[in-house]
Amino acid sequence: MSNELYFTIALSWIGIAVVTFVYLFKQKAPYGRHSNERWGPMIDNRWGWFIMEVFVLVILAYFLWDAKKQLTVVSGIMVGLFVFHYFNRSIIFPLRLKTNGKKMPVIIMVSAMFFNTMNGFFMGYYFGNFASYTIDWFLDSRFIIGMMVFFTGMAINWHSDALLINLRKPGETGYKIPQGGLFKWVSCPNLLGEVIEWVGFGILTWSLPGVVFAIWTFANVVPRAISHHKWYQEKFVDYPKDRKAILPYLW
Ligand SMILES: NC(=O)c1ccc[n+]([C@@H]2O[C@H](COP(=O)([O-])OP(=O)(O)OC[C@H]3O[C@@H](n4cnc5c(N)ncnc54)[C@H](OP(=O)(O)O)[C@@H]3O)[C@@H](O)[C@H]2O)c1
């Protein structure tokens, strides 16, 4: 595939992210607290998470295997960061969830698999065919700043997900007002952390697939944070008044 074709597909994919961003304000993605049976067949929540998220690793592996270039030390570390994130998201995260008996619509799982096919393709094809980082990239300010941003985002995401998961005692499936960490300022610090993490990845790779993925993450999680925030305000009369949805003091 030529550079131009890859670039054209990426631009079209960004266009679809913008449409999705607008659509998700009208239609909440029906999983987690917004899950319901109007969306057809359902699958166990944990299995749904595992299948849809592990898919990106399968597609990534395929495009790296079917590649013209070998990974260098630098691009290998970048791919390693991506795999590290998705190892947690597809295996550790579903195992830790306390969502016994909960289900998600199969259509959500399938649409996430499509999203992950595109992500796996963009990452795998780029790192396997276009990326040409030399060892001095380790000393480039974009790599250093990007790494700091990436790990800050990951720490916020993991810590906030852990606080949420630990709100439930074994066997519970209801919802409580989250406290601690960045919950002091926002309703969805896990989603904020996810955006920060992928912005960091975009900076540290200084690449088109990095930017595309950061835009898609923003498009997916910001509407979700806003719908979670409204849901909390409607459900809990004592919900903290000064807490924002995703951006402290602002949004
Ligand atoms: N890169 C992307 O495009 C993208 C898109 C979406 C999500 N993600 C990531 O995937 C992870 C999960 O996302 P999510 O939207 O499902 O997060 P979420 O709605 O905040 O839920 C996370 C987990 O915590 C539980 N939980 C949430 N709030 C709770 C409360 N108040 N009381 C008790 N339990 C609570 C949820 O249970 P229930 O399932 O029962 O609600 C779920 O198991 C996050 O780390 C997010 O960043 C990434």
Describe the 3D structure:
By secondary structure, the protein is mainly α. The chain has one domain. It is 65% helix and 2% strand. It has 7 helices and 2 strands. It has helices at residues 3-26, 45-65, 73-96, 106-130, 141-165, 189-205, 208-235, and strands at 42-44, 103-105. The protein has a two-stranded antiparallel ribbon with strand order 1-2. α2 packs parallel to α4 (106-130). The chain is globular. The termini are far apart. The chain binds NADP nicotinamide-adenine-dinucleotide phosphate. The site of NADP nicotinamide-adenine-dinucleotide phosphate (NAP) has 21 residues, from α5, α6 and α7.
Q: Tell me what portion of residues adopts beta-strand conformation.
A: under 5%
Give the distinct bound molecules.
NADP nicotinamide-adenine-dinucleotide phosphate
How many H/I helices? 7
Rg, nearest Å: 19 Å
Mean pLDDT: 96
User: End-to-end distance, in Å?
Assistant: 41 Å
Principal-axes geometry comes out as: globular
Strand order of the largest sheet: 1-2
Largest sheet: 2 strands, antiparallel
Structural class: mainly alpha
> How many domains, as an integer?
1
In brief, what are we looking at here?
By secondary structure, the protein is mostly helical. It is built from 7 helices and 2 strands; from the N terminus they run αβααβαααα.
Secondary structure layout plus pairing:
Elements: H1 3-26, E1 42-44, H2 45-65, H3 73-96, E2 103-105, H4 106-130, H5 141-165, H6 189-205, H7 208-235
Antiparallel strand pairs: 1-2
Helix pairs in contact: 1-7, 2-3, 2-4, 5-6, 6-7
